[in-house]
Amino acid sequence: MIALTTVRARQHLRAASLCLSCLVGSVSTAIAEPAGSAPAAEARSVSPSSESAHVESHREWTLELAEKTALERAPRVQRAVASRETAYAYRTYGQLPRAGNPQVNLRAMIGRPDAPAATYSVMLGIPFDVMGKRRAWRNEASFITEEADARLLAVQNEVRAEARVAYVEVALAIAARTVAEQSADTARELLERVQARLDANAATALDVALSESQYAEAAADLARAQRTLVEAQNAFRQALDLSHDTDIRVSALSGPTLPAGLTIENAVVRARDKRMEAAAWASASRRWRSADRRLRAEAMAPVTAALEGEAQGNNNTQKSVGAGVNFELPFVMTNQAERAVARGEASAAAVEHELASHGIDRDASSSYRRLEAALAELAAIEERALPAAERTLQMVHTMLDAGVVDYFRLLAARSSAFQLRSRRVEALREAWLCRIALERAMGGWKETP
Q1: Residue 216: how many CA atoms within 13 Å on its side-chain side?
Q2: Alpha-carbon 278 to chain mean position
Q3: What are the tens digits of pLDDT across the range 107-123?
Q4: Residues 6+ positions from 24 with CB-CB distance below 8 Å
Q5: What pLDDT, in 10s, does the model give residues 172-198?
């Protein structure tokens, strides 16, 4: 009886142990791998940089987003920001105290032949800036920061325009490839149609040869359009400092317009106010002239005001206390070479300022005229030339089905229509580039066309 009870107890204990181990295993598994844990673990293993690259590779770019990204990440902007921070460090020179470090002068005069007549003295002096070096440094630092600010704004304007150009190149390269694909598709369909009619003795071998030539030319145009698109996408990645595997997807562009209410005179006035290249050179000229004044102030040593005590070492010790001033006589001017270089740099910067001012006026006016001409060309193609070519192509198709015209007229009409489609894309591209050039010439524009 006792043995049976012991066996049953062992069996119950073994079953309880097995249940407990299963329970612990299930709990540990649930803790280690909760519901939906695999995606979460994968998400945790992805670094922030890889997440950013993942987002970039799946976003659809817009003009505004391209501008913002370029202004944040373009290497030229980063270098300009670093130069600006360095320029602001010059402000520390203007915060130096007027008084310098204390100066101590110890003197011992040995008595000869009367040794007890030796004289000892100590002098404590403080140098003071009386030539205005601190003020000169403060003025020079202000012009240095003004120049850095102006150059940063100028770089941002250039980078903004480069980003917009890169975006336009990609968008219109896609449009050009679409036209090339349509041309290749219609050329292939026409070739198949002509071959079928040749088999039915309704076309000639010359018709087939001409159709094959047009199809081959359309295929070559498609390959060129694809190459142009790849180059535009690479340039877009370069302009925005994107990774090499970022997928570039952009929205289609409609035709640009002249900014509302803008005239050529207003464009020139706005360019003078907003373009920072001339302002940067003006600040540089003032900076070098201020450097000349600062070097002149540094040519003389500071004036030292001192207190002096003197005592003799004999039995009849005599003591005296006094004050003195130590200064430099400017018989020989120093810093002449540095001042000459500063004056030369100031003159060169003044010349650059004049040239930049003239160039800004000319750039704004010429960009305005170019945009007007480009919009006129685009309107002529979209409103007259392309619709006429499309109508002609449709009429030739109808007449060919009726047996009135031959395939040569159809090939000519098709070639003319697709040439105008490609020309329309090129005119649209040129109009956009002219619009961006005008915005850059004016230092930016608050409205996005």
Answers
A1: 6
A2: 20
A3: 887 777 776 677 888 88
A4: none
A5: 999 999 999 999 999 999 899 888 888
